């Protein structure tokens, strides 16, 4: 990897661009600029002369990313990686025109970005080096003869130059002057093709003789040669002479074969990749349709908890583990079957057999048994297991390879949900539930780029004066082509598939920007705070505090105006790591609140140990109606505890005046709920600020 490489980012979503910039900077690259439109990208590319473009396809303005890349590539030799959430065939077809050096689908892991950038820079250097080598090669050919041959058709004698003979390893006196001797040194599979090329040219069917064939070198190896020639004839007569040359193109052919191999094989494990697997699966499906046979099956494997290996032992160990798993899988299948790596820690196996589901289950069981043996890497004994989805290909149900992979993926996720380290066979009824989840996952992958996330804001009021003291940001997901999805549904899925960090960063950026704008425009004398919920995975992610500093610097919001709400579950594991992060946040001036207090871990120890300023009393502790105060003693105990420790209390879910009066009577500090205000869209809240319809504390 070229650490000094200069990279230009073209992305019209500032939070996405900022995240990519931070990732690239951590990798050691230099980000020379950020463009949000095609015109700006063209100008910056000319000014900064970057080594690589990271280009979003869907950018604002008259030029999209593909058109922008075309214009830049027409002027400058700069490789392009498209980073986008779109993978439809039309977009891919247009993108291919620009010959991109990579294509990454959002969201992506940092490892994927690192590999794509490294490979793109390496590929560009190699292509540039190859072009220079080809130029030098052509100059050398022009200055020195290739293997020359001259065939006298009337005498049936051929002259071979010394260089012609050297190309295939022979000395001056080791070959005869006949065509038969030439043909005998051509690979048996290519002889007929060369003879046909001669005949077509001598019969006047081709303007020039040109044919690539394999020739047998004297040392037993194969040499690829390009044979060229031109026949000479008198007007209206058959040629009497044909002469030309042969060029050794072995290196070029080997390079072409390597490129073809690389295009269809996984760079890490050497086994077939997604492209080759889908091609083979598609052909197998067509054969099954023609022959009206059943038995074709696919196994979809996802390694369980593979991320733990990467995080604890490093990506290099994770890569070696994937190689070892690939070798074990190859050992378990027949030569007629195919094992491929789709990417990450996902593998697929194509079983071409008429033995049906029993055979597929047996293979899955053998894989489970094989993986029980620890894999030794750099002194570590690693236990690995896999969740396996099994699908039988059905002519009625599966039209193409994508349908089969979809159902195998669904079955694999079912195996995950059933406890991992097992296999599950796809069945149609389960498809409906799994399809809904996949639909939400697909929605989440594209939601940031499509602008489908929205923030609502719910005020928090003080007792007894009922003045607003803070505003909580509440995330909503409103797909452009569907119905809204509840946070309780999409947030756990976002955490599970690794999107919560990007989404959480967006929420922080938007929340801080809104509050900063409100302070400048309406609330410049107030002490109004913005409350933002933080996932445990955000807190544990590397660089969280640094990203938060950047967001505060970018938005201009004072750290003292930001309050982060966490749940008690963050204290169930990795407490030392959490303690360091919370201390760093407190040093910045940010306050920490415990949300939904009393429903999770509920240990007095963490309240004393960690820098917590406020407890948010969960709504379940409030009595539902008059005369029902079943949780009264619990509320009193929590308030007494808070007062003793110098903490504030926010009561959530306040919906009636009776509840508010009771909380005021108990000297609860703050309340939040429908009684005071429902969650509001930002514009509604701004109208209230603008019209002085909301009192704020000073």
- Indicate the structural class: alpha/beta
Cross-sheet strand order for the largest sheet = 18-19-20-21-22-23-24-25
Beta content: 15-25%
Q: Would you identify the regions where 5 or more consecutive residues have pLDDT less than 50?
A: none
Share of helix, binned: 40-55%
Sheet with most strands = 8 strands, mixed, barrel
Structure report:
β24 (648-652), α23 and β25 (670-672) form a beta-alpha-beta unit. By secondary structure, this protein is of the alpha/beta class. Strands 18-19-20-21-22-23-24-25 form an eight-stranded mixed beta barrel, surrounded by four helices. A five-stranded parallel sheet has the order 2-1-3-4-5, sandwiched between helices. The protein has a five-stranded antiparallel sheet with strand order 7-6-10-9-8, with helices on both faces. The two termini are 55 Å apart. It has 24 helices and 26 strands. Helices cover 45% and strands 21% of the residues.
Write the layout of secondary structure elements.
Blueprint (H helix, E strand, L loop, with lengths): L5 E5 L3 H14 L2 E6 L2 H11 L3 E4 L9 H11 L4 E5 L4 H9 L4 E4 L4 H34 L3 E6 L4 E4 L1 H6 L11 H6 L6 H12 L6 E8 L5 E11 L8 E8 L1 H15 L9 H18 L5 E7 L2 H8 L1 H18 L5 E6 L2 E6 L5 H14 L4 E3 L2 E3 L3 E7 L8 H17 L4 E4 L2 H23 L2 E10 L5 E10 L9 H10 L3 H22 L7 E5 L2 H5 L3 H12 L6 E6 L7 H14 L2 E7 L6 H6 L4 E4 L14 H14 L2 E5 L4 H9 L4 E3 L7 E2 H9 L8
Parallel strand pairs: 1-2, 1-3, 3-4, 4-5, 16-17, 19-20, 20-21, 21-22, 22-23, 23-24, 24-25
Antiparallel strand pairs: 6-7, 6-10, 8-9, 9-10, 11-13, 11-16, 12-13, 14-15, 18-19, 18-25, 18-26
Helix pairs in contact: 2-3, 11-12, 14-15, 17-19
